[in-house]
Amino acid sequence: MAGVAVSTTINGDAVEYLCQPDETLLDVLRDRLGLTGAKEGCGTGDCGACSVIVDGRLVCSCLVLGAEAEGRKVETIEGMAHGDQLHPLQQKFLEHAALQCGICTPGFLIAAKDLLEKNPSPTEEEIRFGLAGNLCRCTGYDKIVRAVQDAANVMKGA
Amino acid sequence: MNFDPRYSGRNFSSVGTRPIRPDGIDKVTGRARYGADFNMAGQLVGRILRSPHAHAVIKSIDTSKAEKLAGVKAVITAKDLPDLTDGDAAMYDILDNSMARKKALYDGHAVAAVAAIDARTARQALKLIEVEYEVLPHVTDVDEAAQHHAPLINDQVFTEGLEEKPAKPSNVTKRTQFGHGDVHKGFAQADFVIERSFKTEQTHQGYIEPHACVASVNPDGTADLWVCTQGHFVYRQHCAQLLGLEASKLRVTSSEIGGGFGGKTHVWAEPVALALSRKAGRPVKLVMTRDEVFRASGPTSATSIDVKIGANKDGTITAAEATLRYSCGPYPGSWAEIGAMTAFACYKLENVKTVGYEVLVNRPKTAAYRAPSAPMAAFAVESVVDELAKELGMDAVEFRIKNAAQEGTRSSYGPVYGPIGIGPTLEAVKSHPHMKAPLKANQGRGMACGFWFNFGGQTCTDLNIGMDGTVSLAVGTVDVGGSRASLSLVAAEELGIDYSQVKAIVADTSSLGYNDMTDGSRGTFSSSMATISAAGNAIKILRERAAQTWDIPVEDVVWEKGHAIAKGEKYGNLAPLSLKDIAAASGKTGGPIAGHSELVADGAGVSFATHICDVEVDPETGSTRVIRYTVVQDAGKAVHPTYVEGQYQGGAAQGIGWALNEEYIYGKDGRLQNPGFLDYRIPVCSDLPMIDTQILEIPNPNHPYGVRGVGETSIVPPLAAIANAVSNAVGVRMTHIPMSPPRILAALDAEREG
Amino acid sequence: MVEVTLWGSLSAVAGGKAKHDIEAKDIRELFRKLAEQYPGIEPWIDRGIAVAIDGTIYRDTWSKELPPGAEIFLLPRLAGG
After folding, report:
1. What is the ipTM of this complex?
2. pLDDT, averaged across chain C
3. Which of C8, C56, C71 sits opposite B178 (nearest CB)?
4. Which residue of C has its CA nearest to B518?
5. Signal peptide location in the record (chain A) (predicted)?
6. Which residue in A121, B279, B298, B562 has the most C-beta neighbors within 10 A?
7. Which pairing describes strands B593-601 and B607-617: parallel, antiparallel, or unpaired?
8. Does A80 contact chain B (CB < 8 Å)?
9. Is the entire prediction scored with pTM above 0.95?
10. Can you give the residue range of the structural domain that contains C67?
């Protein structure tokens, strides 16, 4: 099968790659570009571990084709910190121990970032429904919700 | 072992604090490398062909077409994994589970595998493999499988543990029995007796990271395996034995692990990946799909349990009896045995008897799942205990307090207890504000207790002091939930230095002596003991170096708060030497300073928890929501309390999913109908409330800090606590887990019809 | 001399008796003497037997001494999650 040439922007950098027409954005990120922060937990859009933001929209990268990234702006976990400065969500996840095994963490951080950008002062219920597309099997979500609440407070003050 | 593990009742400066975990930064930036995040030059993609049949003889496998496909580098079947198990039945079963040898025993059983240049080619190659099956009758239900007319899964299995060897083979592999006293006499003394039967469905550990590995076998017999596992030393032994490799030549590196919960304690695809690599002569990466994870790895037992408990009018239990049937998948296990041991462990009983039956079914091989077998037994027992309390007109907590086991009680599984926490957790629950909070219509409150043994085991740790005075700690127990943080705290505590000066890693199998896997809640219990011991050995050297520097006898040097101090009037003018001072001079005082420890961390402390749960049941739909949840559990000593809370919350959440949603659903054709997260629904964020925790600390006498192990007990009470809450909300006793909306509606309908 | 109690299934291969008086100084000697007396126990020992001494469970420390008068209870060696 002939490859598709794609020009896109990932975490602010211009990126070009060739991919197969049936190849997912997740596979492109992980296998072609070495960006393994997005994880494949299911491959069917049910777990959210592969969450990325494409043109301001939160998506499961396992449900997006690599070819669809053409001309778009893709944000992944690898671009969340600014230099050595962690994003407040990253810092609060650490402080609240909002991760145990950590496999779901990149997806949660991306989804929470998207949530807080759209709703800077979410209620607990809004956080819970906003993150309902991301599965975590370790924490019972308690510490994740608290970390997002705390980060929202910090970001509002900033 | 010259190490004294006894509890010493000391004060702490680092232990008990809540610093940020050392591996955290990599995990929030996406840099942490899990099983599928590692690559080798020239690596191939491995894929496994799986049986679509629940039970079938494999008559022939033709791989010739697949082998001819361009880009395919190796195709293997069971022939490429010859039986080297030398009569070791448990290993033979692991081998057969990795790749079916004569029969496919469940939907999803591996029958062949390929390695190809990319995933697409590998998938195409699987379609070209022709397998001729002779489909056999199958059985997936635990009760049906135990019937004498059920399809036989293994005609070489005769029930063990019977007084006379049975004449005919059976799917019941073993009968086990525990208890003491005379239950007949006890029931005769009872004023009230409740007897009920329960069922629980099979669940999966549901780790978000699928099994993944990269295997590389060289022609000279050396090999590397990168893998997500709870025990890389155990994986090394399994793989070396199954592949005929020398253990020391197989280097296994444990990746970051994306959840295990017992499901990553023995090998599945790893021997297949190694065999593919050996045949192809190239590294092979093998990652399971989610569908494969559900169909072929993991699950816990499905169960069928009968419980009978009698009590007299004053609320004393006079007798307790349970019969437990647990599914094992198609290979013998000891799952009912564990259920039979744990079922009544919370109580002080004069007369108790439990009988377990292990049952073969055409489902995936049962694997451990967090306090394996205990949650189902607790569900059945705690449901009857609650019902009996009602019958007696006693408060559910008071009834349990009256009958709770205590120090000196003979446990239902045999030994007499030392100091234990069941009573204190019940007292804490009794006075918890949660118990007094008001409830609305259709809401109910339930509570239940749970028990787990906790394990220790073989453990080896290295502690190396750098010339700058920082410390690297290499442990061999895989970190599944923050143990690198807790073990760094332990090293800091012992050496008297700051937590930030310690960096803990999980060493690979070539860098450290053998370690048992991280199971049985042993990670922090065992490796903290080894770390304390290793630090003690390092301190001995630090004192020697200080003595040498000062030219005084080592006996006059003590170690206090991170410093060597010369003890005695005559040394008044000697300023203490810090760890940093001694480390900086180490090149001139005898070379590197390190502490090593190898030990068997035995004497793990048993652990108890009591949970409180409020639910709201919608009588129209049968849908149930947990609206408040509280966990009270004895930790012995919480080394890093935040991660202890995390274990409590995580176990409760898994228990809630098990209680209300999660189940393996098999069709009449013996195929799993819901092998994905859409249809096998684990709790999501919007399903759950905050999960409150209360840590009790009743020291384990067999650990210097009193640590018991905290990982598993928290999944034991939820099934029962929620069932009791549902019963209190809508007045029906739920006897089948999960309590999904259709089951609750059916129970409500049956109640209305009377 | 210590008194050793076997769990239900194990006593079936030890002459049907749950309690046994055995002269043994540590777990290793206990296992050796049990196997001498009841060869049927050997496969169970190979598969794993844990020993509770006064309520504390030892799974691997075969050198553990058996104090006179201690309560010794044999249990299956279990799997964890």
Report:
1. 0.98
2. 88
3. C8
4. C81
5. none
6. B298
7. unpaired
8. yes
9. yes
10. 2-76
